[in-house]
Amino acid sequence: MLETHLKQISLQYSFPLDLEKDGEGFYQLMIDPQTPLAIKELPKGFVCRSDVAALTTQDLEDLLALLMRANYLGQGTKGGVLALNETAQAIVFFTSMLQEYNYKEFKDKIEECVNYLNYWKTRIKEATTKR
Fold first, then answer.
1. What angle do CA 63, 97, 84 make, to 5 degrees?
2. Are 34 and 47 spatial neighbours (Cβ–Cβ below 8 Å)?
3. Could you report the per-residue pLDDT of 12-66, keeping only the tens digit for each?
């Protein structure tokens, strides 16, 4: 189902789509050159992830506090998660849909993901360049 929805959204909005899964089973959907989404099918639903920003040592404590506040009860992420990547070099945003879904629900979740992703890219950039 995911592959069908990815083809449809790619065609509808002219997003480049790589139907070759990576080593972790993620498809790559390019919303724009700065917004690649990695999307993986789950038994019921899907998970979406994307890099938000590189992690810098400048104002690290304030930045991590900001991320923890955003993650607290999903308030600043609408249930998504801001986390560090495997090497702790970048901040990553994850969101998921853990139920059966149709194309409209898929498209709405992707739009929501991109909106939160763009918000946090801007918010983190502001937080790290405030000095």
1. 25
2. no
3. 999 999 999 999 999 999 999 999 999 999 999 999 999 999 887 667 888 888 8
CATH for 81: 3.30.1460.10
Tally of domains in the chain: 1
What is each CA distance from 110 to 37, 84, 87, 128, in whole angstroms? Answer: 9, 21, 26, 27
Band (76; pLDDT cuts 50, 70, 90)? confident
- Identify the pLDDT of residue 51: 94
Cα separation values, 69 from 6, 74, 114, Å: 32, 9, 20
The parent domain of residue 66 ranges over: 2-128
The structure's pTM equals 0.88
